[in-house]
Amino acid sequence: MESAKFDLHLIDYAIVVAYFIGVVAHGIYVSRKQSGGSEDYFLAGRSLPWYLIGFSLFASNMSGSSFVGLMGGAYANGVVIFNYEWTAALVLILFAIFILPSYLRAKISTVPGFLEERYDVRSRRAFSLFTILAIMFIDTAGALYAGGLVISNVTGYLNLWAAVAVLALVAGIYTILGGLSAVVVTDTVQAILLIIGAAALFWIGLDEIGGWEELFTGTPEDMTHMILPADDDFLPWTGLLGVILLGFYYWTINQFVVQRTLGAKDLKEGQIGAIFAGFLKLPNIFLMVLPGVIALKLYPDLETPDLAFPTLAFELMPIGVRGLIMAALIAAIMSSLDSALNSAATLVVKDFAEPIFNVSEDRQVWMGKLVTAGVMVFGAIYAPMIAGFESLFSYFQSSLSYIVPTIVVVYILGLMFKRLNGNGAFWTIMFGLIIGIPLFVLKEVTNYWTYMGLPEIHYTVMSSIMMTIGIILHFGISYATSPKEKENIKDLVWQGEEAREIFTQWEKPLWQDRTLWAGLLVVATLAMVVWWA
């Protein structure tokens, strides 16, 4: 990997430096405008419009697991990796229509806060602690590693550790200064830059291989389809339910992502923003997946799949455009990084410091900035250790598949069944943590699972197994123990009347109707699946 070096010229460096200065300056500007309240800092004063929410959701997701990891996954496995993208579009529809209304009615500041409103404080603290750890080990460290990997291979001036440190410092500064307001506006600019850069990369790469007709000529058959046999090593069709479960975790109960919808101006703005993000996910087949296939045709002997993006970008792009691509990559990395830092700070302050120590508004903001700095430092130290995994994408997906299914069960079933109680929720979450984490280490990290002669089970299938056990546990423990009456539970459990209101009334003007846009997204998603299946 050390031998893969690429050339940047003075104008390229100038573009990258100008970008760094711009995002830090914006953080300073936002910090001067804020009133100082914790809701202003952590939730942008609950004033975000739909377009900022949509772009920010998209940009936060399009980070290391996308620009680097998604292209690397396509380089190694083909278009099957797009299953992670189209399923996200459908999950965002379900989130917007059926889940977000309950969140906003509960007036929560954090997603784990919903568990206390619906169940009890034990469930809130258990899930919040897990989310903080996931942000530190997966989101923050993964984003830093992706950026550090590319920057260290692009320049001859920085090694992996130094590149990670620079990214952490810049993202940390503007996130500490501006909070969520700085994050979402910066994310919007970064999302637009990302789309332009990725589109240019696809267009130039396609021209280099001779056009669309040549894209799959000579490519192995199994790399041209999304639905693969049950014995496929990367993603068997039997694992698609597991992919959807991961999508439910990521898009509906992950503070890292959901926080910008909690800061929505109102329910409609939050819902349209989520659906808009779903539309932005579909073009990723062209922006993120097919460039990986193009890289395979042009550079079939790369040392690691995660080098597909930097190799394609810096071998094909002319001077100046390389700087744009580099800035787009840094934009993608920092969009994910700033969201992770801000959400970790929100969780620590709102789920632990405020309720336990009754911290004042000003002190909450100060503590949030301190936590942001701490997570930034931890991520910079841990990120280079991810190099031990086969690829960045496998690190992201497999690390969640063993733990989050039981948490998804607690949320989704809690939104549907009033009888489920705090005992069932808490012990189901704890089962996922106590059993899931050692299972992940046993099977994916150490390979002791294979040494013991146990049957090979794909991690997406393992996700479905953990979900099934979680459902049995949640219902079993809840019905075996006394229900705890909560005054506002009716407002938190989804109602049939709500569905009738959503699906039987047209909004005016019609072009702003949420159900209409959700339906169009379903049609577009299914068309994409049929085309590539």
Please render the helix and strand layout as text.
Blueprint: H1 10-33, H2 38-43, H3 50-61, H4 64-77, H5 83-106, H6 111-118, H7 121-154, H8 160-209, H9 240-253, H10 255-262, H11 267-281, H12 284-298, H13 308-316, H14 321-357, H15 361-382, H16 392-401, H17 404-416, H18 422-445, H19 448-451, H20 459-480, H21 489-492, H22 496-504, H23 514-532
Helix pairs in contact: 1-8, 1-14, 3-8, 3-10, 3-11, 3-14, 4-7, 4-12, 4-16, 5-9, 5-11, 5-23, 6-7, 7-8, 7-14, 7-15, 7-16, 7-18, 8-12, 8-14, 8-15, 9-10, 9-17, 9-20, 10-14, 11-23, 12-13, 14-15, 17-18, 17-20, 18-20
Share in β-strands? under 5%
What is the end-to-end distance?
34 Å
User: Helical element count?
Assistant: 23
What profile does the largest beta sheet have? Answer: none
Overall pLDDT, averaged? 83
Unreliable residue runs: none
C-alpha geometry:
globular
Q: Helical amount among residues, as a percent range?
A: over 70%
| Overall strand count | 0
Helices and strands, in order, run as HHHHHHHHHHHHHHHHHHHHHHH
- Helical/strand content category: mainly alpha
Using only C-alpha atoms, the radius of gyration works out to 22 Å
